[in-house]
Design goal:
Layout (H helix, E strand, L loop, with lengths): L4 E3 L4 H8 L5 E4 L5 H7 L6 E4 L8 E3 L5 E4 L4 H6 L1 H6 L1 H9 L3 H4 L4 H5 L6 H4 L41 H7 L3 E6 L2 E6 H4 L18 E7 L4 H4 L1 E6 L10 E10 L2 E10 L6 E2 L1 H7 L6 H11 L12 H23 L2
Helix pairs in contact: 5-9, 12-13, 13-14
């Protein structure tokens, strides 16, 4: 591990000043991903800025009736919050599907959003990887790629995003609050994460020193309350997704009035399936309709031999989740 300095600033302003001191400065909160990458020699910061005591750790109601989740809130606390369980079950379920109980007790909301890919080549400092060493190549294309992305990829990188929580947030149209040298701003998940393109080393649109301060959840509705998460993985616990879906559903008069679908483990960011959503609105909710809708989304996929199965897997688990949500909503009708 490269020697590094450690600072524990007394204020957010001091943390931002330290954070903008160079590209090899990293913020530290729970450290459940960053410390692992440092041990592997993948992350090599010269300075760690401990923001644990500076990040908000409360979950507060917004003036409009949504929830503002501080970036320092622990994953386990967010998953267990009664308001989240009632009004945004997809988020609670996604959090509980991720990692182990011990890690959820350490991991923060901000850190979860910023975790790096679990691609084997990225995590092995002895191997080429465009995300780690730009221009060195992407050996995953001809090597081990079963768990990697099929949507939003480029010739330079096919890494998939590992977060379960972020997929749930994408289905909720959540906003990420960011504070930086130029002030504060709010970003949708699609604008927060970036696709690899020609520059796979950058996972997000954050500028050096930017600090994630909170995540804002929308005003609860029938759509957010009728939501769920399903994850396909190789073992029952503590395993990253092979495929995942976060969905929210509203049915009126026997047809889909509104729907939100976000796919996990198939792209470099949580993949909002907007083509599939549009195809389902105004249609009866059937297995055939869902599979066809996800098929439209997958028309732009670029699978490789060992991960081509993800297209059909995504369609099947999306259908299973939506049918479950549709049945639950129908049972609640008077």
């Amino acid at each position: 591990m490269r020697p590094f300095a450690y600072e524990r600033p007394a204020s957010a302003e001091e943390a931002l000043d330290l954070g903008t001191a160079g590209s090899d400065v990293a913020y530290l909160a729970g450290g459940t991903n960053l410390v692992d990458l440092m041990r592997l020699g993948v992350a090599r910061p010269r300075l760690l800025v401990d923001v644990t005591g500076l990040l908000p750790r409360s979950i507060d109601e917004t003036p409009t009736g949504g929830l503002l989740v501080g970036a320092g809130v622990l994953n386990s606390d967010l998953a267990a919050d009664p308001r989240v369980r009632r009004d945004y079950p997809v988020l609670s379920q996604a959090l509980l599907a991720g990692a182990s109980g011990q890690l959820r007790n350490m991991a923060t909301v901000g850190g979860n959003l910023l975790q790096r890919t679990r691609c084997l080549y990225f995590q092995d400092a002895t191997k080429p990887c465009n995300k780690r060493v730009p221009g060195s190549g992407c050996p995953a294309r001809t090597g081990i790629h079963r768990d990697l992305a099929i949507l939003g990829v480029s010739e330079h990188c096919i890494a998939s995003h590992p977060s379960d929580m972020a997929v749930g947030l994408a289905a909720l149209d959540a906003l990420v609050h960011v504070r930086g040298a130029s002030g504060t701003r709010m970003l949708r998940l699609d604008d927060f994460y970036r696709l690899p393109g020609e520059d796979p080393a950058r996972d997000t649109t954050l500028d050096p020193g930017d600090l994630v301060t909170a995540v804002e959840l929308p005003v609860p509705s029938a759509l957010t309350r009728t939501s769920g998460y399903r994850k396909a993985r190789d073992r029952a616990s503590y395993a990253f997704a092979v495929g995942a879906v976060a969905a929210a559903l509203d049915i009126e008069g026997g047809v889909v009035s509104d729907v939100r679908i976000a796919l996990g483990a198939v792209a470099p960011r949580p993949w909002r399936a907007r083509l599939a959503e549009e195809a389902l609105r105004g249609q009866p909710l059937t297995d055939e309709a869902v599979v066809a809708a996800v098929g439209l989304e997958m028309a732009g996929a670029e699978p490789l031999p060992d991960n081509a199965f993800k297209a059909e897997l995504s369609a099947r688990i999306t259908s299973a989740v939506l049918r479950q949500l549709g049945g639950a909503q129908t049972e609640e009708l008077p």
